[in-house]
Specification:
The protein is an alpha+beta fold. 59% of the residues lie in helices and 6% in strands. Strand 3 and strand 4 form a beta hairpin.
Length: 438
């Protein structure tokens, strides 16, 4: 290397060192491309939030509600099978008249109860809220808050008969009440404002990322330009060394002068390019710091977004579970009433009638109507007042237990006026006529 070219390259390195503020790493080629190590700044836009997944808090709550609801539905189904499994559906055709309407009304009511229970069970499946837009739409149906310190409360009928809407009230008062900053983030009063702020931060973050990417591309292009200039300087230096120091040769002197002029031009161009690269490198920390700030802001409100979605899923899932529980109870009541109405008008099964065995003894009333005539001069006639023999008397025949035997004596209570009394009449001392008995 000649003294001139060596001095030029040394001056170039010194200028780059002063401009950049770091000593270039001479890895054997003197390339200033390694003057400032470039570090990638991660873009923190993690949107992989799963508020309804089983690995999240809301997912675990949903899984618990699902298991509880399925357990309730299983108990309901067991009772339904027990009720309808014991009733013969084949005897529906034997019902006629107005009973047919009551029978079908009972079946329809019981079927409606089963349908209500099944529909209620599906209310606890699937995430209730998957985005802030859906949540904002649900909350917009509720009366807005005029005073965050005293938000309006739902009416008693809403709390009792509309558990899902009541849960929306509780969620809205919690998110947009006097503790809104803790849930939605600083200076964000409503869920809609959180959506708007996330949009603004996303746009700013994208702008900063694009600016940093442009700076990196420009810095890389300047690195290549500096390397090209350094390569040219080295080539000219080698050519200058090959020419040497001609003393009297005019052509050699002219060639040396041309090479020195080209070398000076390349050194000046490399110096200008190095200065531009140094300026671009100085701008990189500011751009990276701005992007990092945008990332921090974005992460802050993305964390609030995840918190809001988790709280919304937990509270609204609780409202859905309460609604499902009420509907299952209503469905069970409808099924029970419908089954009772159906069973009340359904005739007994023929097989059940065949299985019934007749009783070995017939059951009779204690007394049955009869007419009795006692022959005069008998022992039985002496038990009656005078004038009551040989005449037909109204009586009540004692017939408790099994059928009285025709050969045995019979006891009667005579009810005819003037002859009243209880008398036991053997078969050979009188006659008796009781149509209800043999």
């Amino acid at each position: 290397m000649t003294e001139v070219s060596g001095a030029v390259v040394k001056a170039l390195k010194t200028a780059v060192e002063e401009l950049v503020g770091a000593k270039p790493d001479d890895g054997g080629n003197g390339s200033p491309s390694s003057v400032m190590p470039l570090t990638e700044q991660p873009v923190a836009t993690d949107m992989s939030l799963d508020p309804g997944g089983l690995n999240s808090v809301a997912g675990k709550v949903r899984d618990s509600y699902q298991k509880t609801c399925m357990w309730i539905l299983s108990v309901f189904a067991a009772f339904g099978l027990l009720i309808f499994g014991s009733l013969p559906f084949t005897n529906i055709g034997q019902v006629d008249g107005s009973d047919r309407w009551w029978l079908w009304a009972g079946l329809v009511l019981a079927s409606a109860g089963i349908a209500i229970a099944v529909v209620a069970a599906t209310a606890v499946f699937g995430p209730v809220v998957t985005s802030l837009g859906i949540l904002a739409e649900k909350l917009s149906a509720i009366r807005p808050i005029e005073n965050p310190q005293d938000p309006p409360q739902p009416e008693w009928c809403t709390r009792v008969f509309k558990p899902r809407k009541s849960a929306c009230w509780v969620l809205r008062n919690m998110l947009e009440g006097n503790e809104a900053a803790a849930h939605l983030g600083p200076n964000v009063p409503t869920v809609k404002k959180l959506i708007e702020k996330l949009g603004v931060f996303d746009e700013r973050q994208l702008t900063s990322a694009r600016a940093e990417a442009g700076n990196r591309a420009r810095l890389a292009a300047l690195d290549k330009a500096v390397e090209a200039h350094v390569t040219t300087v080295r080539a000219l230096e080698e050519r200058l060394n090959a020419i040497g120091h001609p003393k009297s040769d005019k052509a050699g002197k002219a060639l040396r002068a041309a090479v020195l002029a080209a070398l000076d031009h390349e050194v000046q161009a490399a110096s200008v390019t190095a200065r531009r690269r140094a300026i671009a490198a100085r701008e990189m920390p500011a751009a990276a710091a701005e992007l990092a700030q945008r990332n921090t802001d974005m992460q802050e409100y993305l964390g609030h977004r995840q918190l809001v979605l988790t709280e919304a899923n937990v509270l609204l899932m609780r409202g859905n579970f309460r609604l499902a529980r009420k509907l299952i109870v209503l469905g069970a009541a409808c099924t029970l009433v419908g089954a009772a109405l159906y069973a009340s008008v359904l005739p007994a099964d023929e097989d059940d009638k065949k299985d019934e065995k007749p009783s070995s003894t017939a059951s009779w009333k204690r007394y049955v109507n009869a007419t009795v005539q006692v022959r005069a001069g008998t022992a039985a006639a002496r038990q009656l007042p005078a004038g009551c023999a040989d005449r037909t008397l109204e009586a009540l025949r004692v017939a408790e237990g099994s059928v009285p035997e025709a050969a045995g004596p019979y006891t009667v209570v005579i009810t005819t006026e003037g002859c009243r009394g209880t008398v036991t009449v053997p078969v050979d001392q009188g006659t008796i006529d009781s149509p209800a008995l043999p």
